[in-house]
Amino acid sequence: MAILAMIPLAASLSQYQSNGLSSYGLLNTSTLPLFLIDNPLPCGVPWGNTQPGGNPPHTGVVRRYKWKISRSTKAPDGVEKSLILINDQFPGPLVEANWGDTIEVEVTNAIQSTAEGVTIHWHGQPQKENPWYDGVPAVTQCPIAPGSTFTYRFRAESFGSGWYHSHVSWQYADGLFGPMAIQLPYDVDLGPVILSDYIYTSYYEYFSKDLALPLVFPTVSNNLINGKGTTSCSSITTEQMYTRRSLAKFAFQKGKVHRLRLIKNGSSGTQKFSIDGHSMTVIAQDYVPVQPYTTNVVTLGLGQRADVLINATGSADGSYWMRSDLDVSCMQLATVKLPCTCVRFTTLKQTHRRKQPLLVIHGIVTIA
Which class does domain 2-359 fall in? Predict the structure, then answer.
């Protein structure tokens, strides 16, 4: 396929230069457990005898996170840009808890150069008990001023896959977002697969054109999976610096059912997700379990999530692309050609933090 020639197998940038301290898309990225076990396990599970569909349990467990938000220059697809980062990571760190746990996040705004206020919205969590922690500026709270700290504290009322993001202006278009995983048990959990369009200008410059007259539809610069991608040199201006990057990497175990938590969190457009040679069973959308159905393509609009199951049935020596195509029908892309964002798969045994064997190789997933 022509796209193979567009994707380098080796990267000239370090992981820190492209994604900071984030480990998403690396061979040693951890899979997620059936549930977190560093807590009491009544009836063998964190939520005791509480059944899904009922009111969330009170587990008595608090999951604490400490975040520092700042600006830093990174190059997720090889093109440098000033991003808003949490703990110097792009995308932001995973918020992980069991259903019914209390999540506590201490957020310090350390943005200095642009003096921006921030808030964090926990997308899809109802906040029935704590509406003041919903993160909507001027509605549920004032923005966290530069140099100030604010602590969010709420219970994980919905289980499944979600994400968080800034609700101040369009800051999430500059990188202020990350995944959430609220656990109920499922086979091999590969964790978040973050699908995001990407823009090279600042969010303010990008969306000020969208709000001006005459109406101009937004034009994105690229498409990323787990904060990684490559770009065509033809789309780079002389003022921009580009260094080639590698793609995200995933690992399948042959014969196992794998759960992927698809998250569409970009600034615009619709993503169409697929994996060559494999169908997907959708089991949940936006924290809501659904009647399972099988499909070859999952379509996600802005902010949507889907939990899918994939049975690794491919051949042991095969290679498969993971793709997320950005629907550009509502964008002005007459002069900008977006490459298909994809990931190759192959297999090699590797050890996981919870002693689950993985099968991986650089840039490819094969199944053994």
Answer: mainly beta
Of 30-44, 151-165, 211-225, which one has max mean pLDDT? 151-165
Alpha-carbon distance of 311 to 280, in angstroms, equals: 8
* Cβ-based neighbours of 313, under 8 Å, separated by 6 or more: 254, 255, 278, 367
Burial class (CB in 10 A: 0-12, 13-18, 19+), 1: exposed
Q: How far is CA 112 from CA 91, 141, 172, in A?
A: 20, 21, 17
Do 59 and 20 touch, CB atoms closer than 8 A? no
Q: Is the pTM of this model over 0.70?
A: no
Distance CA 15, CA 17 (A): 6
CB 168 within 8 A of CB 118: yes
**Length, in residues, of the chain:** 368
State whether the Cα torsion 5-7-13-14 is positive or negative.
negative
Structure tokens at 65: 């996170």
pLDDT at 3: 32
φ/ψ (deg, to 5) at 56:
-65, 145
- Residue in 47, 78, 54, 15 with CA at minimum distance from that of residue 242: 78
Asked if omega into 40 is within 30° of 0 (cis), the reply is no
Domain boundaries, the chain: 2-359
Task: Please give, one letter per residue, the 3-state secondary structure of 246-314.
Answer: CCCCCCCCCCCEEEEEEEECCCCCEEEEEECCECEEEEEECCEEEEEEEECCEEECCCCEEEEEEECCC
C-alpha distances (whole Å) from 90 to each of 204, 236, 333, 345 are 19, 21, 26, 22
Q: Which two tokens stand for residue 330?
A: 């509502």
Q: What is the pLDDT of residues 234-273, one digit of tens each?
A: 555 545 555 556 777 777 777 777 888 898 887 777 888 8
